[in-house]
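thread: overnight batch results

M.L. [08:02]
morning all. the overnight job finished for the chain we discussed friday. pasting input first so we're all looking at the same thing
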Amino acid sequence: MNDSGRPTSTRRRVLGGVLGAGAAMLASSVRGMSAPAGKPPLRLALIGQSLIRHDLRARSWPDLEPIGQRLRSHHACFSNFEVVIRGPRAEEPTRDPQGVHAADPIVIDCLRDMGINLLATSNNHAFDLGTGGILDTMQALEERSIPFAGTGRTLRDAAAPVFMNTEAGSIALVSAAAGMIRPGGAATDSRAGVHELRRASHGGLEESDLMRMLESLERARAKADVVIAYLHNHLWESDIARTAEWQRSLARRAIEAGASVFVAHGPPLLQGIETFRGAPIFHGLGSFIFQTRKADDAYAEPNWESLIAECRFDDGRFLGAELVPLSLASRGERGVDDLETRGRPSIATSAQAKATLQRVAGLSQALGYRLRLLDDRRALLEA
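M.L. [08:03]
and the structure it wrote out:
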């Protein structure tokens, strides 16, 4: 271990010890990790990002356990960790304190209890408390055996895949961020930070950064059954619900390099869905938990919509996904300033769910993909 509590081996990290779907996530670094013959389809839940500042369990609500049961029924559940952990190495805020996304380590325990056991840490808020905050966050996650990717003590570390094993096979995650990474927040050969994909002068991304991510995905594919390629994107279009062409290109290249699924967050709303070579592409899954401090009128209805994408894979091959709409509380129990209860998720009612699915279907159709609506509450994504 180094002074951050992070393994000093080249972080071909394989972390486990997290119980999900009643199965232990076993640690292994053996090449070609796989489950025994006759294993069941691998169930992977993909959800919106988790901007969680308070322990949601402290003030329960009716949908806490139903959502938890749903997420825990999967072998793995993935989200982006949109906060930095307060710890002994925290530095002065790198942005307006009102915009700092910071929390105590207990929020990790809350996410884990809800069934979330795989996290991306590459985002524009990872550096809110400086390099020390990045190190404290990594240590808190490692102490709880939560696999994560996207930050590291060096750039090589931050760009490396993380692996986890389940009874149905192995999963790898490669995670990066583009846009709004503050000076000093990106990882380098000698500084801890975020795996950043820099904007190129032509408007896309720097090719050298893309190649680093694609090479990491190729390494992940050689070891894991299912590979997640993740992007936290803050290089938004003027209409933030619209997916940039450079992101669509990145998703396709990621799949060509070995990704089984491409997932993105960043804009605080849902974007369209498409497929490429039979692999799903979720261009924006919005927020799963959205404990924002902004005023009540800062957001519109789409900012409080979300989805659970319940994906199934067989030997790394995408079989399909059911989409389950969620509704986030735009106001807390005691008003908009009640941040402990604002932004928490519930299963959407029939009318809310129908509106969410129709919105996503329209955004997906603009990308050339026709989403199959099963009923007012569910949609099916087919390979």
